[in-house]
Amino acid sequence: MSAPTRVNVLTQFRLAVFASAALAAAWGGQAAAFWPFSDGARLVLAPSYGGACEGCDLSGRIMAGARMTNAVFNGADFSHAVLTRADASNSQFAEANFTAADLTAATLVEADCPRAVFERTMLARTDARGANFAHAHFTGADVSDVNFEGANIAGADLRRARGLTQAQLDVACGDAETLAPRGLRVRACAG
Q: What is the dihedral of CA 151, 156, 160, 162, to 10 degrees?
């Protein structure tokens, strides 16, 4: 292959990769892309889902590692979605549906999730400090090692949650309507 042909092929390849990155950014939400024009550089896409998406159908989507902070997802459908390592701190999820979703190692710090459905959801190792889970449902959810420190679980149904310990409930607070597994207790929220 002659030198001009190799340059043309390399230029076309770079344009194809750049176009693919642009399409991925448009399809997956807001993204930051860096094109490798120097040795050792690489293409990096970091999806971000911000703003408001109330009532959105995001079921089955793969959003692993997504940044979803300070956003509004009230009534959104995340059933069967993959949200592992996603950061949804300070976001609103009132009445959102997370049935059978994977939120393993996600960050829900100060997230507002009243009346959300977490049935059969993988929440293992999720950081939910200060989150509001008032009247949320956790039937069949794996809550192993979830950090519920300062979380409000008033009226939440945790009776059939898997992996729930007294130590997790000791750092959360609830009310007389909170349903915990037999033998576990929830302290009342102050005020």
A: -10
